[in-house]
């Protein structure tokens, strides 16, 4: 009996010895890519879908995602090689280029193509018009960031001078804007989802307009990497872009509920219904890019918005900081 048990044990041990190297080889075969995202947001749903659905793994990539909490911190991580890829607003690549970088930051895959903020009113307004903001206190976003620039662009589009026609507050950190509004600061506030929908559900605020709808298509959030990294890791960047494209197609084809259930682990404090509402709202206004191509019209619109806000250091050609060849190859 002891001999039989020993034989069984020996066979199982051999099987384990054979399996372990195969598993190790499989993991070792995946190339690691470090992503730094500017913030954690439902606005970036396709990125989380790419991770959860295993699209990166299918391409032989092992992604490590960290949240930098700010455009400057995200770009610092990229430039210091603490990240291989950054997910951040395209305006940051323009700021870096204007400073005379010897290794430009190249936009290679677009994730979102509109602004992701909404105008939230403290009181319910049945028939909203933009001129109702005049004379009010508006809690905006930080100076130099895309939400603030788009916000001012839209206000001016509706003949509102943000610095003369209303009391504009911009000295509150991004992370504290929602809590400041909740505590009574401001008549209107510019918020991302899902915070805007949470406020509406709780009766603390009411969504009255979309800055994304008003401002048109812009490369609001894109994946970018240093030119040297793309040159040295061209196949990796192509695989990365293909995984993102798969996720973009998934989000477009599947229901908002399906996507919400998939990415909810990234938003543990968010109710599934709120997540679904936010995703549906972004889908309906075309905020999620359906492919990773960042075209010239969007790029020029971005620079128009930056120039209107007085934040454009200099005009930069589309082909200087944007690589569309990778995305074009992937979607074919």
From TrEMBL:
Source superkingdom: Bacteria
Family: Belongs to the bacterial solute-binding protein SsuA/TauA family.
The SsuA/THI5-like domain, residue ranges: 45-253
Annotated organism of origin: Bacillus canaveralius
Annotated protein name in UniProt: SsuA/THI5-like domain-containing protein
Keywords from the UniProt entry: Signal
Main location: periplasm
Pfam families cross-referenced by the UniProt entry: NMT1
Gene Ontology CC, one term: periplasmic space
Subcellular location: Periplasm
Lineage start: Bacteria, Bacillati, Bacillota, Bacilli, Bacillales
